[in-house]
Write a structure and sequence with these properties.
It is built from 3 helices and 6 strands; from the N terminus they run H-E-H-E-E-E-E-E-H. By secondary structure, the protein is α/β, with parallel strands linked by helices. It folds into 2 domains: about 1-30; about 40-170, Lipoprotein like domain (Double Stranded RNA Binding Domain), CATH 3.30.160.150. Helix 2 (about 60-75) links the parallel strand 1 (about 45-55) and strand 2. The longest helix is centred in the first third of the chain and has 25 residues, at about 5-25. The protein is flat. The N and C termini lie far apart (about 50 Å).
């Protein structure tokens, strides 16, 4: 058997198996997380990020939170970010709890691994009436890191994960 025919046979087998697996999973309604079409309450598309509440004294955290929630919602739906007067829904993102600290210590109480933990929730209100139309409930995400220089990156990854999970709750489930 020549080398090129062996490659074609493997490719053909791989392609056939992949196609069968895709058909099986698609047939039962399975979809990759974050791929469903985003449906906001009342079919809203025009949003205003009214407030970000966070207990941290880290000045970099609020802009990171604002950017993360805007990017995640925009990536998943047909969202227009606008000023309050033109918005259908206003958003409040609240950090309920945030902390970093040792998660694994060595024999001499030396920190070997640390963890950033963040719990947050998102509230959607009709802009015209102020009526609460959706609340995510608390969502927690954690990210491990080693060394103080890695703390901010771990916190940013935990923020992104928590916001991803919050927006997942807006998507339809089958």
């Amino acid at each position: 058997m020549s080398r090129s025919s062996w490659s074609r046979e493997n490719w053909s087998t791989w392609w056939s198996v992949s196609l069968v697996l895709w058909m099986l999973t698609a047939g039962c309604g399975y979809q990759l997380q974050g791929r469903n079409e985003l449906h906001l309450p009342s079919g809203a598309t025009h949003l205003y990020l009214a407030r970000v509440e966070q207990p941290s004294t880290d000045s970099w955290m609020e802009p990171v939170l604002r950017i993360a929630v805007r990017e995640e919602l925009s990536r998943r739906g047909n969202i227009v970010w606008t000023e309050r007067e033109r918005a259908q829904l206003s958003l409040t993102l609240r950090v309920v709890q945030y902390g970093t600290g040792a998660s694994v210590t060595g024999r001499d109480d030396i920190t070997l691994k640390s963890q950033a933990v963040i719990t947050m929730e998102l509230f959607l209100r009709e802009t015209a009436t102020g009526t609460l139309v959706w609340a995510s409930g608390p969502v927690t995400a954690t990210e491990s890191y080693r060394g103080l220089e890695a703390q901010r990156g771990a916190t940013e990854r935990a923020i992104a994960e928590a916001i991803r999970r919050i927006v997942d709750r807006l998507e339809p489930r089958f």
